[in-house]
């Protein structure tokens, strides 16, 4: 999703600063660091600074955008994906819903496999708060424990920069769709709460297997 956002909503900037909360399981992980390192290697950015919020200061603008969606969602009828998209788009001028089925440039990719092959994990990752990726140090991340701390360079790229395949891309992943069990759940548990004419759109009857 981050790759899709930077690719489609970027303004051609050479540098960017990304703020995130200090969630080790979601944001502070090896694959996101590898992704930023990869963008520098491909020349998509000249510098990326990735900053974690300190404990006790975990509120950010993204949270407020989700709050706008929840506030409007509670006051709206929502029986289909189209209505959900309308709610998201109307909730705030900065919210823009993206439906996978209608977005030609959207695709799921196996970034985990791709980055595992080309990049090493950062040891002691949770000790750092600020990560900087720069075109002057391709394949490296410059880590700091605090804003006024010493910048420590750490190599992430496994191979020599000269041998890195710049045209390599992660393999695509085809969405598997809803399982039969999930379809049955939607039909039996959710369908009674969906109004016409969206019952057969959102919770259609489960097709009998031949």
What keywords describe this structure?
210 residues; alpha+beta; 2 domains; five-stranded mixed sheet; 14% strand
Residue share in helix: 25-40%
The arrangement of helices and strands along the chain is HEHEHHEHEEEEHH
Global mean pLDDT? 89
How many separate structural domains? Answer: 2
Q: List the total number of helices.
A: 7
Rg, Cα atoms, Å: 21 Å
Quaternary structure state of the chains depicted: single chain
Straight-line N-to-C gap: 37 Å
Number of strands: 7
**Helical/strand content category:** alpha+beta
Query: Could you say which overall geometry the principal axes of the C-alpha atoms support?
Result: globular
Strand order of the largest sheet: 1-2-4-5-6
Strand content: 5-15%
Unreliably modeled segments: none
The biggest beta sheet reads: 5 strands, mixed
Explain this structure.
The chain is α+β, with helices and mostly antiparallel strands and 210 residues long. It has two domains: 2-59 and 96-176, no CATH class; 177-210, no CATH class. Helix content is 32%, strand content 14%. It has a five-stranded mixed β-sheet with strand order 1-2-4-5-6, with helices on one face. A two-stranded antiparallel sheet has the order 3-7. A hairpin with a 7-residue loop joins strand 5 and strand 6 (152-155). Helix 3 (61-73) packs across helix 4 (81-91). The mean pLDDT is 89.
């Amino acid at each position: 999703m981050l790759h899709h956002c930077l690719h489609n909503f970027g303004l051609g900037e050479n540098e960017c600063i990304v703020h995130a909360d200090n969630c080790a399981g979601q944001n502070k992980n090896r694959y996101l660091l590898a992704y930023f390192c990869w963008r520098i290697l491909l020349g998509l950015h000249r510098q990326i600074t990735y900053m974690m919020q300190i404990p006790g200061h975990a509120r950010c603008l993204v949270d407020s955008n989700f709050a706008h969606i929840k506030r409007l969602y509670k006051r709206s009828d929502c029986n289909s994906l189209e209505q959900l998209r309308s709610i998201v788009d109307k909730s705030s001028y900065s919210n823009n819903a993206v439906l996978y089925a209608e977005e030609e440039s959207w695709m799921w990719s196996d970034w985990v496999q791709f980055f595992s092959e080309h990049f090493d994990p950062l040891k002691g990752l949770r000790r750092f708060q600020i990560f900087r990726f720069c075109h002057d140090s391709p394949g490296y991340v410059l880590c700091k424990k605090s804003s006024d701390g010493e910048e420590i360079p750490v190599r992430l790229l496994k191979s020599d920069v000269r041998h890195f395949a710049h045209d390599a891309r992660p393999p695509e992943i085809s969405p598997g769709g809803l399982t039969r069990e999930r379809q049955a759940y939607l039909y039996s548990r959710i369908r009674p709460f969906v109004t016409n004419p969206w019952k057969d759109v959102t919770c259609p009857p489960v097709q009998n297997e031949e």
